Amino acid sequence: MFTSLTDTFTLSNGVTIPCVGFGTYKTPDGDVCRESVLTALDAGYRHIDTAEFYFNEDGVGQALKETSVPRDEIFLTTKVWNTHQGYYATLAAFDESAKRLGTAPDLYLVHWPVTKDFKDDYPARFIDTWRAMERLYEEGRVRAIGVCNCLKTHLNVLFDACKVPPMVNQIEYHFGFTDADQLEAAAFSLEHGVVVEGWAPLCRGKAFGHPVLAAVAQKHGKTEAQVLVRFCLEHGILPLPKSATPSRIIENADVFSFSLDEEDIAALSAVSSIGRLGPHPDEARH
């Protein structure tokens, strides 16, 4: 299972996604982003993840223009930000993202289900946003639609109200994060045919040097970052590692010459000391 970057996850509508994505969160726009994406594509990545809120869609778009990799071989994701949720605002946000990227994304995601600034409008605003996503999908403007940061309760809101269920749920998922509601979100998504993508699979650097992680890396002759990426894949989660350093971009994709055995997975899964790195899905502010 998962022996190369060309391996894929299959969505509920039959669309396939390359099994490791290149994340661009906090990658500065302009040359840094452009060069990072070009390096990733040269290294074999064919799955690029960005968002309106990352403020680097222009840089991603420039890389897509410059690369020799055909557009139809690249799976591109972006996301609607919280302040642009709502039916008509989401449709307009999609158009603006497509302009910055120079192309329509393959996958469009709702970045957060509910935030503190809009708690009084939940779930109506979330449902209106999803109806716009359904329209984009039904009109063939995107190949797939999904959500981010959704727990079981948020997913059930959409399952009860939607015509087209989410195909992806992108959530925080990594070594050392064992909160029950987050693990439940991953399991519930998978049980309902929703592909789970994991953001922050490298723990934003906070796991490096952990003795359990270091021991597994030494055992396999791999870096700790490579073990972290493989950890997600072994759990059936699509990881989105990010870096702006060329050597690390290449390293993070080199995870197919080894696998983790049951002993490795048990040891790694027992660690809970890293904890949540982003906000709780019900506590996001904007």
In short:
The chain has 286 residues and is an alpha/beta fold.
Would you mind describing this structure in some detail?
The protein has ten helices and ten strands. The termini are far apart. An eight-stranded parallel beta sheet has the order 3-4-5-6-7-8-9-10. The chain has 286 residues and is an alpha/beta fold.
How do the helices and strands line up, and which of them pair or pack?
Layout lengths: L7 E3 L5 E3 L3 E2 L7 H12 L4 E3 L7 H10 L8 E6 L6 H15 L5 E4 L13 H15 L5 E5 L3 H10 L6 E5 L7 H12 L3 E5 L11 H10 L3 H11 L3 E2 L6 H8 L8 H8 L17
Parallel strand pairs: 3-4, 4-5, 5-6, 6-7, 7-8, 8-9, 9-10
Antiparallel strand pairs: 1-2
Helix pairs in contact: 1-2, 3-4, 7-8
Strand content: 5-15%
List low-confidence stretches. none
Helix and strand content put the structural class at alpha/beta
Helix content: 25-40%
Radius of gyration: 18 Å
Reading the helices and strands in chain order gives EEEHEHEHEHEHEHEHHEHH
Total E-strand runs: 10
Average pLDDT figure: 97
The biggest beta sheet is recorded as:
8 strands, parallel
Provide the descriptors you would attach to this structure in a database record.
eight-stranded parallel beta sheet; 39% helix; two-stranded antiparallel ribbon; alpha/beta; 10 strands; 10 helices; single chain; 286 residues
